[in-house]
Specification:
Low-confidence stretches: none
Structural class: alpha/beta
Distance between the termini: 21 Å
Helix content: 40-55%
Shape: globular
Number of strands: 5
Oligomer: single chain
Order of helices and strands: HEHHEEEEHHH
Strand order of the largest sheet: 1-4-5-3-2
Largest sheet: 5 strands, mixed
Radius of gyration: 14 Å
Length: 149
C-alpha cells in the first residue's frame, strides 16, 4: 500500500531551504492539496495541532508525521514525503526534522496498513539511513517499493 501512496508525484526533496516548520508542513502537503486529496483547511489543521500540542508529530530521530482528523478536510486517503537538507527545527532545536511525512486519512482505519508499513521501514536502521541519504526522488520511491541496494 505504501508504494502506491509514496510515488514520484508525492515525494519531494528540498535542499538548502530556509523554510520554518510551518512552511515545511505546508510544502510537504502540497502534492496532496494539488491532487485534491486534501483541502487547505486540512493543512491549516495539521499546523494548528502542532501549535496547540507541541512537537508530538516527531515520531523518531529526524522524522515527523504531520496529520489531523479526517473531518478537517480530507477528501481521499493520501500520503506525501518531503526530505529536507539541512534539518528544520520542529517547534524547537530539540526536534530537528529531515523527513516530513504527511498523512491524510479518510477515516479511522484505512490508513493503518500504510502506517504499519511505514513503521516497519522506519524501524529498519539500514533503510532509514538510505532514506536520510537519498539524493533523488527516485531513490526514495525505490525505497518504498522495497528495492534493496
Amino acid at each position: 500500500m505504501l508504494a502506491s501512496l509514496l510515488t514520484k508525484d508525492t515525494i519531494q526533496i528540498q535542499n538548502n531551504t530556509n523554510l520554518n516548520w510551518k512552511e515545511a508542513i505546508r510544502q510537504a502537503a502540497s502534492p496532496l492539496l494539488e491532487a485534491g486529496k486534501v483541502e487547505e483547511s486540512y493543512v491549516d489543521s495539521m499546523i494548528d495541532v502542532v501549535e496547540k500540542n507541541g512537537p508530538f508529530i516527531n515520531i523518531g530521530p529526524h522524522i515527523a508525521l504531520a496529520h489531523s482528523r479526517p473531518e478537517k478536510g480530507v477528501n481521499e486517503m493520501g500520503m506525501a514525503l518531503m526530505k529536507v537538507t539541512p534539518a528544520i527545527n520542529l517547534v524547537s532545536v530539540d526536534h530537528p526534522i529531515t523527513l516530513f511525512f504527511v498523512l491524510a486519512a479518510s477515516d479511522n482505519t484505512k490508513h493503518l496498513k500504510a502506517l504499519q508499513e511505514l513503521a516497519t521501514i522506519l524501524q529498519d536502521d539500514r533503510r532509514l539511513k538510505r532514506l536520510e541519504n537519498a539524493e533523488s526522488v527516485n531513490d526514495l520511491v525505490n525505497e518504498f517499493k522495497g528495492v534493496q541496494e
